[in-house]
Amino acid sequence: MAYSMVMSDESVTTPGPAGRSGRGLLPGLLQQTLNCSLYLLIAWPFQLAVFIVNVTLISTAFSILLAPLAIPLSIAVAAGAAAVERRMVGKYVGLDAPPARRLARAPQEPWTDYAVRVVKSPAVWLEVAWSLVAWVVSTITWVLTITWWSIAFAGITWPVYGWMIHGRNGNQDLSDLMGMHSFGAAVILNVGVGLIFLVTMPLVIIGMARGQGLISTALLGRAQQEARIAELTQAREAARQAESAQLSRLERDIHDGPQQRLVRLKMDLARMERQVGEDSHAILGLRAAIASTQETLDELRALSKGIAPPVLADRGLLAAVREAAGRATIPVTVEADLGAVILPPHLEQAAYFVVSEALTNVAKHSGARSGLVSLQVVGAELSVSVTDDGQGGAHASKGSGIVGLQNRVRSVGGTLTLESPVGGPTTLLAVFPLT
Amino acid sequence: MRVVVADDSALLREGVQLILSDAGHQVVAGVGDGTALVEAALRERPDLVITDVRMPPSGADEGLRAAVQIREEWPAAPILVLSQYVVEAYADELLAAGTGGIGYLLKDRVGDIDEFLAAVDSVAGGGTVLDPQVIGQLMTRRRDPLQSLTPREREVLSLMAQGMSNAAIAQRLVVTSGAVEKHTQRIFAKLNLSPDDTAGHRRVLAVLAFLRG
């Protein structure tokens, strides 16, 4: 959210492409040509300088001793230059090149972790790559820009200086070579060539600037997308961790607070029941209070089992799933092959949720006589399946809670499929990526 | 009898203590975490240790670990575990540790004072008491071999697994001891359990061993 705010602010303050402000076609085109020329003329020396600095730094990095200094510097130079390039492309060429968002160090993040994160980011290396190759294109466009301006200028202004050189000391110019020796013909030819270059100038200059700008934004825009994806991934990871921590805390708060008080209340009521004796008229009321306290306790317990059962935190997914299978009203077999993989808490919670919801559904709707829960880690995926031998015909739209389950699975990057032909068997399969 | 009570909630420790002292038992130590429990149990050598599961310092299954640790030093320690939730896996771990009386009940059962006090006596006397919820889970799991039992026999088996004597079962089901005796004989025959295991604690363990498969 914060990111998109920054982005939209940026696009508001970025000046619109020069020359599109509605001052008529010609001044607009002239302005645009001048801007693009300026860009093309600056770009080559700039990119060459960046190349020289960075190629030097990267060569230095091959020395192990200097690498810790050279690599960060090289990354910084590339990032700085890329920022300048983005600004130039946006301002002079009018291409959409919003500034990249830097990978910022988290408040308590160790420098080493931050360094690893920076070095692992594709965006960073795309910028470095750009800093090394950009000068190749700009060399060509720089030469062509100078050529176009020179010929246009020299051709049109030929009548002003041409008389000084025309036909002197065996000077041969273009018209002489074409067999036209009169001064008038030379004027026409030179001015003509100058005009051709002048007229084609906007097309050529703007075309080159756009072409070169597109190459830059392709590399750097890609860098920017990568940075944004990295950031979103990180944000999602943080949100998941926060959610799973919050669920555990909620369960703990229920356990330490209302549950304890209700248990104590039941104890006190039970003692009172004994003290007042059978023939007291208060006994019926007390018994009703005890029963209602017990019901509240049962409801609370069912509630916290659905949130984050303590056995999940204490003994892991397999134990919690076995427990859920044991609570089922029909015999449920649990098969597991989890290897030595340590599952992150948010995945354990989601996988457990799938099993416990699926088993509830089996009990409610399927009419099954037995069930099978299978937990398997294959490659980089955790697959969780719940099968029953019931009547089948289950469907996501039948209010069976499948939609809620689907959302929960999707929120941790997994997929959920339901296979339930009429007549059974029904299989609910959830697959979670481990990374 | 002399009892050590461990629970991190003073509210519940006090509640349990009141019920025990009403019944003439004496709480010799009340502690709030696993480390203190191990220390108090080994120092006092009480007739019964009652402990919560979730306690500091780890905030996880601290009471269970303390129980196992106490049993390493004192294998016959009678331990009654009270918890806000019962987990079959924990019951297995408790039954596997040591030789003394063991109990594992939901905390709510303390409010059924007569049954709670019976469990206290049974565990202190070396018996086994498991929460009906755990037994229910075990019976669901071993459903197929149990198909041959009549509903009444299943009921008797469940009460037997909870640690009840034939007399207690007869009282609960409002039948004669002789009737319960007949039921138990038939259950043992149907499940191929050795008839030698018909007395007290050994009988419970045999039933549990069968249920746990």
UniProtKB/TrEMBL annotation, chain A:
InterPro entries: HATPase_C_sf (IPR036890), Put_sensor_dom (IPR025828), Sensor_HK_TwoCompSys (IPR050482), Sig_transdc_His_kin_sub3_dim/P (IPR011712)
Lineage: superkingdom: Bacteria
Record keywords: ATP-binding, Kinase, Membrane, Nucleotide-binding, Phosphoprotein, Transferase, Transmembrane, Transmembrane helix, Two-component regulatory system
Stretches the record annotates as Disordered: 1-20
GO molecular function: ATP binding; phosphorelay sensor kinase activity; protein dimerization activity
Gene Ontology cellular-component terms listed: membrane
Domain Signal transduction histidine kinase subgroup 3 dimerisation and phosphoacceptor: 249-311
Annotated TM spans: 38-58, 64-84, 132-161, 181-206
The EC number(s) this enzyme carries: 2.7.13.3
Database matches in PANTHER family: NITRATE/NITRITE SENSOR PROTEIN NARX-RELATED, NITRATE_NITRITE SENSOR PROTEIN NARQ
Stated name of the protein: histidine kinase
Originating species: Flexivirga oryzae
